[in-house]
Here is the input.
Amino acid sequence: MSFETTIRVLKAASDPTRLRLLALLAHGEATVGELQAILEHSQPRVSRHLRLLAQAGLVEKFRDGHWGYSRLPATAPLARSIHPVLARAGCHSDTLSVS
Here is the structure.
């Protein structure tokens, strides 16, 4: 991974809300509405965070009918680096509730 890519990924993941989104998506795909309900943030705010994560290659978006989903990339080179970061940050299923 290039230095510039590393900086972009670290910047994207450094925001507490985006880190929580990554932790939630580590458990499976979700819609913006589902993530919005968990985080108790507005839809535009959650969508913006997801867009920034997608631009950094940490999240991929896809559609299934009328629903848009986000998930961690399964095969992207960055996928291997997401889970160790989440583990180091203490992002476990019991820490995903609104704090």
